């Protein structure tokens, strides 16, 4: 890879990937969802055998309590301790987000307000495939728990032996998941959206997945709510001459190893630092277990961009709107006020992206593909709905009736106007005469 000048870079390559614009693939997903909607669990069994080569009739669709308890025997004490510490951090962070309902009385006797209510039943998708993510269980389920959701349903594709990873099952139990099913892909989304003979549908689906999952979430939106359409992982690092190449290379590869379509971008006004970091990336790739995936990502969607100064780099970051943004400069807090379009910002060399992925507390389900311009990380509000409260008094309605009726008639809606006026019969009858 060569260093690119900011004037020469192709932003489309870095921000808009060909991910989900295949009409044939969209139709295949639609066909899968149709089968689940019409044939229920029979379709789930057939599709899981077809795509995952698993016979759920033998291994069971729902994970049993015995399987969950057995999973605890298969994980280390160190893992359990680390996960429970992460759980406490995530809960503590998200508990600060919770808001309460409010009612505001007016001197005229009216009451206006808003009810904040948890959703009743939500579904979370936990990826399998090339990697398994117990951290995704915590990040999706714990905000729902804080919101007050009573039923949390998890789906995840089974392994070759028809089981789920023990760490994923333990994370589900620790996070308060109430039901776990061994089904993934578009059919897993279908199960959550439509339900089956024995599984009730959910109100909302959250969690990232592959292209089939993303397109399935897109197609069931409106039947259920979804969190976002998650694309491949992204990181952009803005760094000055104080950066350390070995640390920067490791941070870039921490995202590149996720997916061949992931993007890792390094931006700096220091050409020597960019050159040293590129060499370090090559060195670290040599013994990286997921080197094939990381190299494909790095060569297709990676970049080392030379800018004139940090301000130009910050402007570029806000334009690209990356999922993860590391600000590795001498005084990162002095730049925080200029951060606008990123999913999460990591300040300084001691805040590498994996701290946020696993442990610090903020959610790692973040907007991708430039959607950080208008979208937020998964949070407690994701699992709540708001209900407006309107309690007008007689005096208030009498005061406002004329203007309400005028606005209704300006839209040609006579019945709307009469619904107000009829409450003051004399005026209504006078109008009728």
UniProtKB/TrEMBL annotation:
UniProt-listed Pfam families: Histidinol_dh (PF00815)
Cofactor: Zn(2+)
Reaction catalyzed: L-histidinol + 2 NAD(+) + H2O = L-histidine + 2 NADH + 3 H(+)
Residues that bind Zn(2+): 255, 258, 357, 416
Residues annotated as binding NAD(+): 125, 187, 210
Gene3D superfamilies hit by this protein: 1.20.5.1300, Nitrogenase molybdenum iron protein domain (3.40.50.1980)
Chain sites annotated for binding substrate: 233, 255, 258, 324, 357, 411, 416
InterPro entries: Ald_DH/histidinol_DH, Histidinol_DH_monofunct, Hstdl_DH
Family: Belongs to the histidinol dehydrogenase family.
Full protein name: Histidinol dehydrogenase
Organism: Desulfosporosinus fructosivorans
